[in-house]
Design a protein that fits this description.
With about 400 residues, this protein is an alpha/beta fold. The protein is built from 16 helices and 15 strands. About 50% of the residues are buried. The structure holds iron/sulfur cluster.
Length: about 400
Amino acid sequence: MRMAAALPARRPARPQGAPEGISGTGPTALPGLYLHIPFCLRKCAYCGFYSQTDLAQIPAFLTALRREIAIYAEGAGPFDSLYIGGGTPSILGAAELERLLGDLRGAFPITSDAEITIETNPGDVTRELLAALRRAGVNRLTIGCQSFSDEILQFLGRRHTAEQAVEAVSLARETGFDNIGIDLIYGIPTPSGSAFADWLAALQKAIVLRPEHLSCYQLTIEPQTPLADRIAGEGLCLPGEEAQARYFFRTSEILTEAGYGHYEISNFAREDRFRSRHNGKYWDHTPYLGLGPAAHTFDGRLRRWNHRSVAHYLSDLAAGKRPVAESELLTDAERCLEAFFLGLRTSRGIHLETFRKRYGLDLRKEKGTMLTKLAQEGLVEVQNGFLQPTRAGMAVADSLALI
Ligand code: SF4
């Protein structure tokens, strides 16, 4: 059984520093703009993302970022999504973020209806910060709650409490945000051994808060992190395949019953308009420009990424160079495979005719036997010209693309 071979890991298929439109068939929208803020007050025990805790470098980083903005400003855009992620963007504080958003608007054409998202840590969320973000045009807030249990938050090394997580969502609502996303992590093997019950409780608390969007990621253990050491040292058990499947299906069932559409492996939205437009661009090959250390940029064929090092990023920009670490040019076969793989992560799936035109592969003809087999197994179905994963298919989406 292929079940759970590819259950969602934290932030799946999301180039760091890189986003939802969801056609699964190719570029359908304007490009997106991503900004990576590579600083955190302290590292979470499980963190494998690029961020550093030497906050003294923030002023130099902001100077370099403004240089990078100037390099790419000419001819870029217009953008209909802007996503500020990290790291922890909210540690920059109200005034700096307001200035930065003003600089971005001054440098790049950003459409009047753009989705403008910022990631926040509940420990940073204040009325002042939220009001500044609203003034600066931020219309979508994601709040990294991760859990509503202090025991679990401590286990994860998060720097906020459960109460602060709830308070952050309430404050955001009071300040006028009407598009709030909550990030949660499941499959956390705390010493109490009640991981599944803890997760169901967290989901219920999240539902009560009525966020417009929920991202539910399975905990992945990155090597050489304090959490990896602790889990090995204390002999804690991570969920196996069957348990992972149980998390996936119960989460999907519970949130669907609560009125959320399960539109991507790890993502749920109360209405279609609350699906993440920006992340959709990552999933349907729409181009995006990424700025900041470790940020990725994609033009439809060429993908490049910046240095995963603040020091290297600063020195390149001080020398007037683009801070690009590496790039890759996707072959036609790679684009086709990526589009198939990413499309099947989304509930909308792949529009077969558009896919044929764009990637030159008629899936019904060339992969007909395989698709029939998957349909018989209840993993995919064809509806109105779209090849769509069922819930069971979404649970194994990553492996479907390998068949
Ligand atoms: S807040 Fe995010 S980026 Fe920062 S240390 Fe924690 S998991 Fe890593």
